[in-house]
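Worked example (supplementary).
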Amino acid sequence: MGFHAELSNQFASSTERLTKEEKIESLEMLVESYKALAADTKNLISNLANASSLLWFCYKGMNVNVNWTGFYILDSSDNKKLVLAPFQGKVACQEIFFGKGVCGSAAQTGETQLVPNVHECENHIACDGETKSEIVIPIKFNGKVVGVIDLDCLDLNGFDETDKFYLELLAESIATSCNWEKYI
Ligand code: SME
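After joint prediction of all chains, the assembly is encoded as:
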């Protein structure tokens, strides 16, 4: 690897809607870039910090108007609560209980939550009133939800099944590449 920042620079910088093929190419690059970085360290904080950055540059590059890309992880002192972890974007709520909000729903059910319009989702927690759509993917370590990936978008329908597929691959990779046992 040359400069680490090159991994952020490599994504498309589109001002238009990407074709499905171009989108898949960017999302595959996201997952592969994460794996390349995680080959150097198992440290959870380092890997989530770099993953947040990759997510931000990948989605901005795809001309998706993301306003938050990041993580909540299980609170080690309370197995039913998520706490704020590395992210890109504006300040966000620090604690989310299982079952609360889109993040808490993903944590409780173990299923990805794809929300095309947060204003039609009663359980949504508005950290930023400008958010219009959201996707949350659970991260499972030894079968247990240990965290979530959360992406927010300023437009309706910001995410679709292709995002879900590749973000679930990223979640699997994050589950197996980090020293979760030290933090949860
Ligand atoms: N909207 C989330 C809360 C976290 S922020 O979006 C960063 C939710 O409903 O769980």
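Two points are worth noting when inspecting this output. The mean pLDDT is 95. Residues 20-38 form the longest helix (19 residues).
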